[in-house]
Amino acid sequence: MRSGIDHSASDHSIRPQDDLFGHVNGTWVKETEIPADRGRYGSFDVLRENAEQQVRDIIVAVAEGNPETGTVARKVGDLYSSFMDEERIDGLGAAPLAPFFTAIDGARTPTDIMALLGQFMRAGVDGLVQPFVNTDDRDSTRYVVYLEQAGIGLPDEAYYREPQHEAIRAAYPPHVARMLTLTGLYAGESATAAADRIMALETRIAASHWDQVTNRDAVKTYTLVDRAGLDALTPGVDWDAYLAAAQAPEGAFDQVIARQPDHLRSIAAALTEVDIATWQDWLRWRVVHALAAYLTGEIVEENFDFYGRTLSGVPQIRDRWKRGVGLVEDALGEAVGQLYVDQHFPPRAKERMVELVDNLVEAFRRDFIGLEWMGLETRREALAKLEAFTPKIGYPDKWRDYSGLEVDATDLVGNVARATAFEVDRNLAKLGGPVDRDEWFMTPQTVNAYYNPGLNEIVFPAAILQPPFFDVEADDAVNYGGIGAVIGHEIGHGFDDQGSQYDGNGNLRNWWTDEDRANFDGRAQSLIAQFNDLESRDATGHKVNGALTVGENIGDLGGLTIGHAAYRISTEGGEAPVIDDLTGDQRFFIGWAQVWCGTAREAEAVRLLAIDPHAPMDLRANAVRNLTEFHEAFDVAEGDGMWVPEDERVRIF
């Protein structure tokens, strides 16, 4: 049996004892040039490019088959065609935005602004809040609307205040002015003045935003209010006008969860204190910003120049066909996914995955039973939650119905608006109905995985189930180090600093004793402190935010620990063979490290440090330094680069 290790990526001048990431991926990193249209590039991106090409082939084949009008196949082809017709798009100029601008011109009061926000939300234009429907964190048997902070054009509130983002702040208003000029709305000094007003308003809005660390807190971001409570929280805000324009069903806001109440209070004040003309400027900018990707080449280029080159250091925009595929994925993803699964996901892969998941769950069960720091009462709850886990592998059992979506091959912006409205209506229609436990929140062709605390489920789309994550023909050690540890990571999210606050039914409930929670929090704090001292090789001089990344770091640590235990379960009754001069344990850890093969441009690495809850790729690979099993596998000794004294190794599970 082959090992499943890509030895061509390795740099044997670097010892695994000193730098596992460098040893496993060093040659690949040195010899690989980041594609001109990307800010970072690695194992995930290679698979995503492959999936993207496969999806393009599916879309083109569907379109060339001249499907019957009204069929989902015709909608897929027409949506893609509407994006690829550059001549028509350039000929239209900013005309598709004219109805938005006319509506904005007619605004006279804060109520008018709220009505426009509701109307525009249905067309894909984000406003002051971003409503979404999900299971109630404290009652997972029902759906409820969450209100998420929004209203800014930079990646995060920190960009409006921190000195390290000063250059981005300075570049932002000129970009806004250029975009407004390209749409013909403003010219010269009027564009500059409008951009300055927009920046001032966004700075005010950003000041009420909670930071990334606070937004991770499941308890702090849960404030359930009824309609009277929402009105009291936001005096003067006409939610009736917003809901009517959004075409929301009656009672949609009878109860809502305010994720950041401070933001809602702030926008209520701003709506009455900021003049209507400034709100009109801001609304025009929101429209242009949201729909820029579907307008003329000049607007697309200016939009990319700021959000791609300036923010992430990416020199070249992605090929148009790739952006077209992305649009189809967003609007009709499961329709394409059904064809993708038929062509690219063998049944044998799902069978192997079921076996892997079963072993990972069993490894977690054994771990909880023997966990010294966890008491009996908490252990009982943890085991009950583990027993209630629902794994979803490959693709959904029930495919989404797109019969209600209208697509016109000659109307790109209209297609985007209708697709958004279709999704808004689909989600709002959940309110008052039973929870759909079969729903997927990723398409089968997505190279990723997720844990959903409200449904207590782990989900692995078909596209991630391929090398280096999973190879149906490869040795178990590398598969357990790859997809096995990823499975463990996702299960681990059910027991990380936030997921551990949900019970087995998906409800936000404290099922921990005070002593056990203190023990857990102490270990989590040690992990935060450890990562606070680290910096990625892609952004030297910039430290990781341990508090922002702690959930993912706990997931990685748990995934590694339990993934390794599950591998040992798979070998019970026999000794793992030596393959490629590597023991089974060594292959396991190499399998983990090659999953995180990758590199990033410095600007993108810095941006991600500010907003991404995941640690940089090299640090995720080298998280193995916390495992005694890693030290034993490679005979890591004091003085080696990966050495961590035993009493400083963080072990949670």
From TrEMBL:
GO cellular component, one term: plasma membrane
Pfam families hit by this protein: Peptidase_M13, Peptidase_M13_N
Domain of life: Bacteria
Domain Peptidase M13 N-terminal: 16-396
Occurrences of domain Peptidase M13 C-terminal (ranges): 448-647
Keywords annotated in UniProt: Hydrolase, Metal-binding, Metalloprotease, Protease, Zinc
Cofactor annotation: Zn(2+)
Molecular function via GO: metal ion binding; metalloendopeptidase activity
Family annotation (PROSITE patterns): NEPRILYSIN
UniProt keyword Acyltransferase, yes or no: no
GO terms (BP aspect): protein processing
Family statement: Belongs to the peptidase M13 family.
PANTHER family: FI17812P1-RELATED, ZINC METALLOPROTEASE FAMILY M13 NEPRILYSIN-RELATED
Protein name: Peptidase M13
